[in-house]
Design a protein that fits this description.
Blueprint: H1 2-9, H2 14-19, H3 30-70, H4 75-90, H5 110-122, H6 126-133
Length: 134
């Protein structure tokens, strides 16, 4: 019956024979073949890593060329410069550096408020403009 099953399966693999209850065929060179296969996989992986490292180096050269052309700095460089500036300002200070006040916050003058009021009055009808001007 086993012979008939193997004949019926035709090109079935050795694993199919094992699953159907056949005896395992021992390959004397199985360990050697497996070792060669593992070595080939390691070599392929190393070649792949080398290829991608080379490609990334080429990309970084292109990026650096663009940065040089347009005067752009890397994020790390900008952060390092900002940190150095903070340290230079804080040198000798016992407190943390003060935060910069954004322009337009805090020290506003009354002239600007009056100009806003004038702008609003300009769009009012005539009699209401007269009431606000007095």
């Amino acid at each position: 019956m086993e012979f008939v099953m193997k004949q019926a399966l035709g090109g079935a693999t050795k694993d199919m024979g094992k699953m159907l209850g056949g005896e395992e065929e021992k390959d004397p060179d199985a360990a050697k073949k497996e070792e060669e296969r593992q070595e080939a996989l390691r070599q392929q992986e190393e070649e792949r890593k080398a290829k991608y490292a080379k490609m990334e180096a080429e990309r970084e050269n292109v990026r650096q060329g663009i940065r040089d052309k347009y005067g752009i700095k890397k994020k790390e460089e900008r952060e390092a410069e900002a940190q150095a500036a903070l340290e230079a300002n804080a040198e000798g200070s016992l407190t943390r550096p003060k935060k910069a006040i954004p322009p337009g916050c805090g020290d506003e003058e009354e002239d600007e408020e009056e100009s806003i009021l004038d702008t609003v009055i300009k769009y009012l009808p005539g009699p209401l403009q007269d009431m606000f001007k007095k």
